[in-house]
Design a protein that fits this description.
The protein is α/β, with parallel strands linked by helices. The protein has 17 helices and eleven strands. β10 and β11 form a beta hairpin.
Amino acid sequence: MIAPPLDGLTVVAFEQAVAAPFATRQLADLGARVIKVERDSGDFARGYDTKVDGLASYFVWLNRSKESVVLNLKDEAGLAAARRLVVGADVVVQNLAPGAMDRLGLGPTQALGLNPSLVYVSISGYGSTGPYSDKKAYDLLVQCEAGLLSITGTPDVPSKVGVSIADIAAGMYAYTGVLSALLQRGRTGAGQVIEVSMLEALAEWMGQPYLYARYGGEAPPRTGAAHATIAPYGPFACADGAIFLAVQNEREWGRFCVEVLRMGEIVDDARFAGNARRVANRAELQAVIEPLFAGITRAEALARLDAAGIANAELRDLHGLAEHPQLEARDRWHDVGSPVGPIRVMVPPVTAPWEYRMAPVPSLGEHTARILAEWQEDPG
């Protein structure tokens, strides 16, 4: 193993909740020193729940390998300490309320005045300009504004995605934006200012349904766990529960009919000739397929699908995820420390020649005294 690629880099995070902490945790995974600035009550994600032996599941997920420093940014001493941190940082990431960092004198222009080589990243709900710039933004609300709920759920009931997908999207773009800006700084030596909004990040992920609706004249319908524009694709009930499958092309369609359904006569049925016709005639297609699966077990269905080379899956709950044989075989779990003892978490999903930093989840203000002792000289 080699040293992680961001070893020696210092990130100062004025962050809370999900989007910014997700970005900075990934920087910490890659070896960056991430100093998390918290108020005396802490990042409010610390209080979302108590499911991890008294700690919040969101906070544990997003904040390993960070150092927590408590600063009162309304106090001159706390603000002076924050300025010192900015001067000593390579990267600043912030997702405080719109305008908060500017009011503190630590907005992007002000921060680069203190540290001209700084990479400065702001994450917000809707961006720093435009009519929504001051509007409060939470994940569900951004899912609504981005049109995601209009295509997710059943025909009768729109549904949100079960994870904080708008926050995650913004955090991913902030993370990749930092890496890109560091490459640019390596060429020019100059600092960089980056802005990521949750709405724009999620709108990018909505690109396919947007194009489908914009140029096709109608939005993809809400189809529950089935695919709105591909068939057959989704859940099918077997004698002892459901399995999921996906047919992607005409070669797979033929094999599915012959080897799985054992109904070779429908390969060339005009109702199902090509994906567009199968989607248009989905009800008739389901009427052909469903009786076959209803008469066999999940094990038999999955065996037939595997033999035919048709993609398939079991519907696992979260306990099933925790015990997934593929993750176990690939050694994808690792214990990290925390104030309540070791916690089992996922290793970052990029398999690489370096060793990831998997350090403890910090208690509130755990590193305040040491960090303030390191940054003693006020930059003015």
